[in-house]
Amino acid sequence: MVDRSFADPSLASLYDQLNPWGEGDDFCLELVMSAGAVLDVGCGTGRLLRTARRDGHPGRLTGLDPAAAMLVRARRREPGVEWVLGDLRTAPWRGAFDLVVMTGHAFQVLVGDEELRLALRAVRTALAPGGRFVFETRNPAARAWETWTPDREHRLTDPDGEVVRVRQEVQLPVPGDRVTFTETFEGACWPRPQISRSTLRFLDPAALSGFLAGAGLAVAERYGDWDRSPLTAASPEIITVARPTD
């Protein structure tokens, strides 16, 4: 699930460059290829499901995202996937999927307690018996936001070949488990810098387990990185594989 600023088509065209394929995508692709029916919540440009289909996945692949500009790109590149505009409240799927995934730290955009509870209940409803829910969040103990500083500038190339500069800045102080930051895009395609403001929630393992339990889900596997190493205080990620408890 991407930041809603990517509803702007000019920013949506940069998303895959800003978030290139990595170890997390490899991890999730392996799970997708072994599941019959898959729902990708916050699918963005649809990269994961496009790759699965092109790699020969024969079953149902459904991508869900609230940003129309992202789904325009997804549909253009892979028509053989079901693309749905909206969020988990849009289509009340019941027992339809063997696997539900949320990649790209999409889980962290669920900032409010009730928002998170509703999303997890919808995931539980969508899962078939024995299904799995897989997502990752940044480990709050690793304090990744401390590296989101304006001096770490990313340089991308827009569809016209022009350079786009991207930088981040965290709003300080950081209150509790919520981190608010701005992302600034500058390039020839805009008359002035484009600035988006986002808030992410950094939940610790105990809090994550509590929210999952409240939705009828339980942790089946948990890792600290994409190599399936154990979760420690120094781990960059909290990677969770959850299953229904009934």
Question: Can you offer a commentary on this structure?
Answer:
The two termini are about 25 Å apart. The chain has about 250 residues and is an alpha/beta fold. The relative contact order is 0.15. The chain is globular. A seven-stranded mixed beta sheet has the order 3-2-1-4-5-11-10, sandwiched between helices. Strands 6-7-8-9 form a four-stranded antiparallel beta sheet, with no helix packed on it. About 25% of the residues lie in helices and about 30% in strands. The protein folds into two domains: about 5-140 and about 200-245, Vaccinia Virus protein VP39 (Rossmann fold); about 140-200.
Features:
246 residues, 25% helix, four-stranded antiparallel sheet, 2 domains, Rossmann fold, alpha/beta, single chain
Summarize the structure.
The chain has 246 residues and is α/β, with parallel strands linked by helices. It has helices at 9-12, 15-18, 23-33, 47-54, 68-77, 113-126, 205-214, and strands at 37-41, 60-65, 82-85, 97-102, 127-138, 154-157, 163-170, 178-187, 194-201, 217-223, 237-244.
